[in-house]
Amino acid sequence: MELRYLRYFVAVAQTRNFTRAAEMLGISQPPLSQQILRLEREIGTPLLKRLTRGVELTEAGEVFYDDACQILELTGNALEKAKGIARGVSGQLSLGFACSIAFHSAIFNLLQQFQTRYPAMRLLPREANMATLMHDLQEGLLDAAFVRLPCESSKAFNLKIIASEAMRIVLPASHALNQQSTLSLAQLVDTPMITFPRELAPSLYESIISACLRSGFQPQTGPQSPQISSAIGMVAAGFGFAVVPASLCCINFPGVTFHHCDDPALTTDIALAWRKWDRSASVLHLVQTLDAQSRAS
């Protein structure tokens, strides 16, 4: 059964008149009558009672009219959804977040602006370590990911920097150096360093260790924290000091102090990563929103 049969029938049922229905549909009256007859023959029962002045629905026609209206409405909705997804204005966008990135306000500003532009787009966030994010992005399990740089494996993707941030030294509030606003890592040679698992962010991990080596010492590694952010809690418990991205200073954790590091090379970038040659309209819209945000700042 062709959808146009349903449209023709609904028009006749609503106007109760072949001539007015034909005018509404933009066709002549004889072909419309022929199409309705074909529909009735296909169904095997009359749907309309032909009267001198117009038509009435048969009992079967009443039931068929309700279903035909629903079918046409569902078909229209399906077409609009498909068009919206193709244009990248609706559907869903799966986004990966590297550990600790969610603490940076630039990420949420970007997502808020994107959601304002495309309110019908559903965002599906997921946090994971860098290795998992890069794998899932490559395999198409994620549409895009917010990553921390440096990251060697991220070079296989398109990257656009969102923000750069310095690293901060975190000390227990009881530490002898807690009154100094800026510290050298060399001053902490006798204090154990709390590290996060290397697989969370391998290049960032290496850059912290390299900064210690540049300062002339091999850090005493204390217990590892399960995440970058949870290192702050372990510092408060007295396990040692930690080096974390500056955005984590927003964590109001009692018993710790945050300090600038005098090593200007100890920085980290936050970037949006997506597959090279990706033609997804929704990903393109996210990148365009990021570009607009960058121009405005």
Automatic annotation (TrEMBL):
Keywords, alphabetical: DNA-binding, Transcription, Transcription regulation
Entry keyword annotation includes Transcription regulation: yes
Domain HTH lysR-type: 1-58
Gene Ontology molecular-function annotations: DNA binding; DNA-binding transcription factor activity
SUPFAM superfamilies assigned to the protein according to its UniProt record, in alphabetical order: Periplasmic binding protein-like II, Winged helix' DNA-binding domain
Gene3D superfamilies assigned to the protein according to its UniProt record, in alphabetical order: Periplasmic binding protein-like II, Winged helix-like DNA-binding domain superfamily/Winged helix DNA-binding domain
CC annotations in GO: protein-DNA complex
InterPro entries for this protein: BudR_PBP2, LysR_HTH_N, LysR_subst-bd, WH-like_DNA-bd_sf, WH_DNA-bd_sf
The family this protein is said to belong to: Belongs to the LysR transcriptional regulatory family.
Record-given protein name: Transcriptional regulator
Organism in which the protein naturally occurs: Winslowiella iniecta
